[in-house]
Amino acid sequence: MADPRSSFYRRVLESLLDEGLLRRDMSVLVAAGGSADRDVFRSLGFERVTISNLDEREAEAGLEPYDWRYEDAESLRLDDESVDVAVVSAGLHHCRSPHRALLELYRVSRVAVLALESRDSALMRLGVRIGVVDDYELAAVAAHGLEAGGVANTSTPNFVYRWTEREVEKTLASYAPHAHHRIRYFR
Q1: Helices 98-108 and 165-175: angle between axes, nearest 10 degrees
Q2: How many domains does the chain have?
Q3: Would you say residue 11 lies in a domain?
Q4: What's the CA angle centered on 78, arms 73 and 79, to 5 degrees?
Q5: What is the Cα gyration radius of the chain?
Q6: Which residues of 130-142 are buried (b: 16+ CB within 10 A; e: fewer)?
């Protein structure tokens, strides 16, 4: 059985394909990506995907049939509007500045940015207060032998930045006040 995050990821991409907002032949850059991203895109038949990450071990994981690039999501070495779609799934919260990484994805994309991240809410904050949800991602660092998996892929556990819809809107409007943004939220 697929994990809930991959199922959600796949469902969102399927929805965007069905609506004609995405096509399988579009060029896609995945930031902070890995084998889970490969599996979702491959299962949906995407043809032109590049998966990027700071963790070079991801390249060794075998991301075929897709390309791999060493990239920092906060400072992508790509030209403006150089890919059709930029994607990140559960990666922004590993950045020192999640907002900067989101804007880098925006900068390099021609058509769309898809960011799947945790949502800030009263229920989530209650979960943190009672100890069932973490504010700092210790498990990811532990899973990498206490050597990586934290902020900027270091051994320092990252704060789990959770977004509100309004934060996304303000971030994009501040960066590109001239543009009309069509923002969709999925649950």
Answers
A1: 60
A2: 1
A3: yes
A4: 135
A5: 16
A6: eeeeeeebeebbe
For the segment 49-105, what is each residue's pLDDT rounded down to a tens digit? 999 999 888 777 789 999 999 999 999 999 999 999 999 999 999 999 999 999 999
Any idea of the CA torsion for 171, 173, 176, 177, to the nearest 10 degrees? -150
Looking up residue 99, the CATH number of its domain turns out to be 3.40.50.150
Domain that holds residue 47: 4-119+163-175
Contact 96, 40 (CB under 8 A): no
Smallest CA-to-CA distance from 116 within 95, 149, 86, 90 is with 90
Q: Are 132 and 152 in contact (CB under 8 A)?
A: no
Please identify which residue in the block is written with the tokens 């038949």. Answer: 45
Q: Which residues pair with residue 28 across a beta bridge?
A: 49, 85
pTM: 0.93
